[in-house]
Amino acid sequence: MTVQARKSEGGSYLTELSVEAARWLADADDSTTAPDPHQLLDAALAACTAITLRMYAARKGFPLEDVHVSIDHVERDGVYRMQRRLEFVGDLTEVQRTRLAEIADKCPVHKTLSGRIEIATETVVAPAA
């Protein structure tokens, strides 16, 4: 699936993102209109972590009612450092909580961000409007 980004009405840098029928917005760092690209990156990790943990808990029969995932980040000396906080809701044992914390590192987005990433760029000329 291809993610597309296009200029959106309503702001200098407001950008509409889409994948198939889904649509959402992104904006520049100082915007309160929509998340900035780094917040979207953090959100991808948060969403993937929450989904992965709920799926695992359901498969294992853990009494996980919900999981709240918070991501903060800092950039310093060329390093983008993410801090993830997991809050488990439900009557879990210490062993179950420990196992869920381990599983959090196995979500696909965590694996992608922790692995090698290569970006290839192609340019094309758009037809005149």
Provide a brief overview of the structure:
The protein has 129 residues and is an alpha+beta fold.
The CATH architecture classification of the largest domain is 2-Layer Sandwich
Taking the alpha carbons of the first and last residues, their distance comes to 26 Å
Strand arrangement within the widest β-sheet reads 1-2-3
β-strand number: 5
Please report the number of helical segments.
Answer: 3
What is the string of helix and strand elements? EEEHEEHH
CATH topology of the largest domain: GMP Synthetase, Chain A, domain 3
Description of the molecule:
12% of the residues are buried. The chain has 129 residues and is of the alpha+beta class. The protein is elongated. The protein contains three helices and five strands; from the N terminus they run βββαββαα. 33% of the residues lie in helices and 28% in strands. The chain has a three-stranded antiparallel β-sheet, with no helix packed on it. Strands 4-5 form a two-stranded antiparallel ribbon.
